[in-house]
Amino acid sequence: MAKYQFTVEVRPQYLAQQSAPREGLFVFAYTITITNTGEVAAQLIARTWNVNDANGHTEKVKGLGVVGQQPLLQPGQAFEYTSGTRLRTPTGTMHGSYLCVAEDGERFDADIPMFVLDALSDHQGSGGSRTLH
């Protein structure tokens, strides 16, 4: 087990009711679960996202925390949140990283794996809730 490690899982969902395809607006939500799979408590400080549409347009988004929070996660603890993005095309991708600081002051990055945003598929995930430790 790595001393400093956050594992990130993503569940994207197309929001048809908030989208306007004829105007080139496609809205997506994504639910992210961040789990401290390391050996040391650590805090998520900032995020960096790369949002890519099917036309090759990339938007870089940086900011402090996630959904207004900078969660401190003990080993084995998870934090889940839902956010969203808009694209000009019906498909695209997102990926990025979280800047984290461990309890002992060590900084590390947690990769957010690339995931697909797809308004053309009808097999979107069904969200739901889950208990986090």
Short description:
The chain is mostly beta strands and 133 residues long. Helix content is 0%, strand content 56%. The strands form two sheets. Strands 3, 4, 5, 7 and 8 form a five-stranded antiparallel β-sheet that branches. A three-stranded antiparallel β-sheet has the order 1-2-6, with no helix packed on it.
The SS-based structural class is mainly beta
Percent of sequence in beta strands: over 45%
Shape: elongated
Q: How many β strands by DSSP?
A: 8
Describe this structure in words.
With 133 residues, the chain is mainly beta. The protein is 0% helix and 56% strand. It has no helices and 8 strands. Strands 3, 4, 5, 7 and 8 form a 5-stranded antiparallel beta sheet that branches. The radius of gyration is 16 Å and the shape is elongated. Mean pLDDT is 92; it is low at 123-133.
Keywords:
8 strands, single chain, elongated, disordered C terminus, 3-stranded antiparallel β-sheet, 5-stranded antiparallel β-sheet, 56% strand, mainly beta, 133 residues, 0% helix
Write the layout of secondary structure elements.
Layout: E1 6-14, E2 26-36, E3 42-53, E4 58-64, E5 72-73, E6 78-87, E7 91-102, E8 107-118
Antiparallel strand pairs: 1-2, 2-6, 3-4, 3-5, 3-7, 7-8
